[in-house]
Amino acid sequence: MTGQFHADNLHHYMFTNMPSKLITECSQTLKEKGLTIAFAESATAGRLAAEFSLTENSGSVLKGGLVCYDAEVKTDVLGIDADFIEKYTAESEEVTEELAIRLKNLIKSDVQAAITGLTTPGGSETPEKPVGTIFIHIVIKDRSVAVREVFEGAPEEIVLLTADLVAKTIINELNS
To answer: Domain of 143?
Structure first.
């Protein structure tokens, strides 16, 4: 089977949309303002950090990221109390805010973005919080913004829409 998988195929299937235009624009905006960014990613599982790493400004804006998909990572690495997660669920506005706030102590940056949510069934979904519900919390220096959005589609579509929403939110906040 050697030689049947070519780089052309890899490029076509994996890299045609990375980074997105909004992420490229966000990275440029961060660079122009002299700001750095870090991520605590649950639902997006590292997609934002990966896309930002592919922008031409990555070396000057991206500090790093933490994939905290499992609740144990949220408690063990970021120090969020397990009872707090149990009270609000791992996919909630409250836990997402804590992720963003605590990320600053782990990775020093000017902007912290945290993302949780439900891209597949089996989490904390309810009729009020269906699959597709995403929570974003962004801290920019001393300001913070929370976003809740419900997307429809396959898990990858939800993740891609979320990544663009994070970038768009940061751009809007930095330009306001």
So the answer is: 17-174
